[in-house]
Each structure stands twice: as structure tokens, then as C-alpha cells.
């Protein structure tokens, strides 16, 4: 029962006879009061009767699209009148032409994208639908073309609400109930607004949820299927079950799960949940701030979600992408990468101290740098240089430039392999964590040292940790070249080490990046690889015969780097113990 009328489903009507008629399906409305409905074998409604009088007939083409909709009688309540509307489609099933005949007047609209050619009564003109603007061009016989622009304002469902001229004067006002039936528009003093359907249709055929109205037959053309707003049902069976967990979705004729204020159906096949007002505000802010700044805010801010940081990052990234025009699939891919990157570039279990905002912000900057070299390196440089003297700012600037160039090269490498820099760094970051879990770490908390290649120590591989761990050492080298924190560096942060730290080879690179970004107060760098530049707050050394750090040739260019002479054995040139021995001799 609805509106005082009893709905019948799946029953037969005496009017429904002939070769094209078939029994109504289990959810097909067959009778409402004195209204009778008939269907074909595909579940498409073909006839509507008022008692024994035929009031509407619909013809479909071979692919199930409505091609001819004809109404035979007039009805003031529904706004129905006698008329015929015919549709033509291209090979891709897109509508390309609509021809309507009502009250002796024929209007043909030929469509191509946002452009329409309208022909009526021997006159033709062009109309373009550009966003919320309707631009009409009429060509005069003597070349005096006229252009008229009107603006369409919609409600939260996308239904046309108000149409104004280019000066903002209201030309038409429309209103629809929840299920799309046209209704009267009233002023604030409860007086009805006197607008006619004919004047509305002269401006646009769009109406409920932005779809085309076929008002003479009480039909809404939703693209894939047609819909009757007066009964709140589709007139064609849905070929899809979009949400199997919702029993409403098994009703092949129901409109958006019978929840028209929360969902719309853009295609006539699949419903779409409406964005909440809060979401629209957030996306509006992201659009105003720009993609880079918005993503930076998301990357840093998400870390304050604690253990939910990856989820916060994914959700924020999705909305940033959507705000800047990305499709749902593109935004989902970006969100997945961002969420995984947040997990990959934060210590296990999340930031060591979520309440320590300075640490959290610096970790967020590291995540930004993983996908945006320009913004990330700039923020990393500023954050790590705060509190330093002028020389320290200059020293860090040299290192930041080297990291930026490394990221530029890796960006090109990633592009050649069909990846973005963020996706490449995600792979490196996840692999780094895998290496820490399998081959162990090079960080010795008691000795306060981080060593380099072949020195990993882990329980899983035992004595083989160092040799097999080289695979992950190479991986981590690519991260450290960009100034990014690998899994070993994140372990240092997670274990709360903030004082002085000594590093050797790749370990020196890790210590250097930790000092540069402000996670560690100071560091001693033995055999810092030649591609890196010492950060302000570090001092180090390079043996004259050690090729890893440039054999001493780079020492004059590196601030705070001592020159160590060749050891007794050339094979000890890169030996950590040899560095420690010579360092202690110098100190004493």
C-alpha cells in the first residue's frame, strides 16, 4: 500500500496479450489501483493502461534501450500529455538524437558530447552544456549571431533547482519530490510560483538528478534504463546486482535501494552514494590549497592518527586526488599507495611517540619526500636545519641538492618502468622492512653504532645474515641516496635513540640522514659513501685508499671530514675496526 493505492507485483492483466507480452516478473509492478502494466520477455515495461484505456506505450531496440515512448492521454496530476519521443543511439549505445512531438510541435535535439543542435519549427540553433552553464548560439540571417548564457543550480541530488540569466535573475524554478516527481514551487509567503512546463523545457530537458525528462509520458531517461518517478520504480529490469549483501538490490526494479535521498543512479544501472556535505567542504579546501600542499598536509597530519595512520593517509589522499579531477580508480590507486607508503616509512608499531609532535612531523616530511622531491626535499632541508648557524644551513643545502638529483634520476627510472616515484619508493620501503625482518639489522644499540654492507645480524638466517642481507643493503642504498629513512633507520627512531651515533659505510649514510633530519643530535661518519655529503652536526673520516668514500679525494670538499693514511694492509682500507683504531689515535 502506498499513497492509498494497493501495489500488485507479478500478476497478470487481461490487457496484456499478444506475441510481445510476457508474464510480469516477481518484482515488476503489474497493477496500482486502476493502473495496469504490461511487460515483454526481457522484463521491460511496454504498456500502461488506465482501466481499459491505453495511456502509454514504450518500444525498445535490440539492445534493450527505449527507442520510442508514446503517451495517448493528458493527466493534470502527473503532467502527462499526448506526445511521442524517439531516441537514437550510436554503436557505443550512447544517445545521439532525441525527437519529441507534443501539441503539434516537433523538436529534434542532436547531441555530440556537451554540444547540441536543436531544430524546431524550421529554426535551428546550438546549445552547449558547460558545467552549470547553458550557452545558446542563434545565427541571424544577416550574420547577427546572438549568444545567450544561463546558469543552472542544482540541489544535493543534482536535480535542476533554479535557472538564472547571466545577470543572476531567476528565469525558472523547479522542484522534485524525493523520488523525482515534479511538484509546485512556493515562495516564502506560501504563494505558488507561476512557471509553465513549456517554458522550462525551452531551456533544458534536464531535471531529476540531472537526467533527461520525458514529461509527456512521466518518464525519466537515465541512460541505461528509463524510470517512472510517479511510481518510484524503473520500467526495466536491472541486469546487475551491485550490492549482494543488501536484499533491496535483488529487486530488479527498485530505485537506489529505495533510498533516494542518499543515493543517485548516474547511469541507470549502478547507484552511487552521495558525498556528504563534510566531504564536499574538505575537497573544496584541498582544491583551493593545491595538490602539493594538500598532500603534504595529509601525509604529515595522518601520522597523528597513531596506529590508524595508513588508513588516514589513504582516505586523505583519495579526497585530494578526487578534488583535483582524478577518477575513482585513479584516486583509489593513489590512496592504496599512500596508505602503504605511510606504513612502510614509519617505525613498526607507528611513530615512537605520537604525542611528540616534532618527531611525528619529521616522519611525515620523510613520507612527503618519498613521492614529491620538490616539496619533500625543501621541507626536509628546513626542518633539519632549524637551530643551525649559517654554515650549517649551507652544509645541509649541499646534501639536499644531491638528494634531489638522486630523486630526479630515480623518477626517470621509475617512469621507464611504468611507475611513479612514490610507487618505486613504496616497493623499496616495503622491501627494506622485509630485509630487516629476514636478515636482521646493522644497528647495535649498546655500542651506539650502525654498520654497513655484509654486517647484518639476525636470528632467522644466523651466520648467513650478512651475506644474504647484501640484497637488502643495495635496496636501502637507493633509499638513503634520496635522504629517505630505511627500515634500519626507522628502528633507531623506534628504539628511542636520539644521542650521538657512529656509522660506517652504508651505516654512515643512515646516520647522516638521521642527523640531517633532526632525529639524532650528532654523528660520526666513517667511510661515508662518495655520493653523500655530510650533514651539519657530523664529523667523519675517510682512509686515503678507501674507494667507498672517494679515497680521500673528496675530503677537502667535505666539511668536518678527516684524512686517514693508508693502513698496514690495503685490505683494511674499508675495515670498520681500522677506522675506529685510527679515530681513537687522533682523539688521544
TrEMBL record:
InterPro entries: Rhs_assc_core (IPR022385), T6SS_VgrG/RHS (IPR050708), TEN-like_YD-shell (IPR056823). Pfam families: TEN_YD-shell. The keyword Disulfide bond does not apply. Coiled coil: none annotated. Gene3D superfamilies: RHS repeat-associated core. Keywords: Repeat. The keyword Transmembrane does not apply. It comes from Aliidiomarina iranensis. NCBIfam families: Rhs_assc_core. Residues 151-260 form the Teneurin-like YD-shell domain. This is Teneurin-like YD-shell domain-containing protein.
